[in-house]
Design brief:
By secondary structure, this protein is α/β, with parallel strands linked by helices. The chain has a single domain, classed as TIM Barrel. It has 8 helices and 8 strands, in the order E-H-E-H-E-H-E-H-E-E-H-E-H-E-H-H. An 8-stranded parallel beta sheet has the order 1-8-7-6-5-4-3-2.
């Protein structure tokens, strides 16, 4: 695996919301691959963020994939809204769905890639029944709800277990499933996280906190530093 097989997905949760379109355009121009879009409902998680209208508003600012992470319960009602708003990937937590298989099918029926998200204490057993409907598996390396938290070290073992499941499935079917990590990812640990099996890296405060000045290229150096670490893997 080369460094270009790895994808960097800055979370707009840490961006300047007053200039969100510019922030998205600038971070992609600086070398990021996906836009990670955190949706929280103050019900499934203890925070309230953004919805489909914001997704629709930023869609014209980039052609990069928008990776919508639903931290909401229930999930099915809002999936079509995000698909219409321009989402490319929609992931959700299995605990938030009454029927995980049906929710994954709904995402795909609406033209998006589908994925499951696992909290630090959520077992990977859900994967065993729905691999055929998954494009992405996202492991949380913090407890969801707020940006700026520290990486939970035990996630490395869980990443290795998820990677083994995904690789075994790929050998059987030829289908590739992305393994995404979200929470506390930074220059100092991204290589170790990659070695454990992740290939998509959500970084919020590590990227958007890198500079608050008016220079549209202020994200170049931090994304280059993350890529340099990934090149060592």
């Amino acid at each position: 695996m080369t460094s270009r097989d790895f994808l960097i997905a800055p979370s707009i949760l840490s961006a300047n919301f007053a200039k969100l379109g510019e922030e998205v355009a600038n971070v992609i121009a600086s070398g990021a691959d996906w836009v990670h879009f955190d949706v929280m409902d103050n019900h499934y998680v203890p925070n309230l963020t953004i919805g489909p209208l914001v997704c629709e508003a930023i869609r014209p600012y980039t052609t990069a994939p928008i990776d919508v992470h639903l931290m909401v319960k229930p999930v099915d009602r809002i999936i079509p809204d995000f698909a219409k708003a321009g989402a490319n990937i929609i992931t959700f937590h299995p605990e938030a769905s009454e029927h995980v298989d049906r929710s994954l099918g709904l995402i795909r029926d609406n033209g998006c890639q589908a994925g499951l998200v696992f909290n630090p204490a959520t077992p990977l057993a859900y994967l065993d029944y729905v691999m055929d409907k998954l494009d992405v598996v996202l492991l949380m390396s913090v407890n969801p709800g707020f940006g700026g938290q520290s990486f939970i070290p035990n996630t490395l073992q869980k990443l290795a277990e998820a990677r083994a499941k995904i690789d075994a499935y790929a050998r059987e079917t030829g289908r590739r499933i992305r393994l995404e990590i979200d929470g506390g990812v930074k220059v100092g640990n991204i290589a170790e996280i990659a070695r454990a099996g992740a290939d998509v890296f959500v970084a919020g405060s590590a990227v958007y906190g890198a500079g608050k000045d008016a220079d549209p290229h202020r994200y170049d150096s931090i994304i280059a530093d993350l890529r340099a670490e990934l090149a060592k893997v």
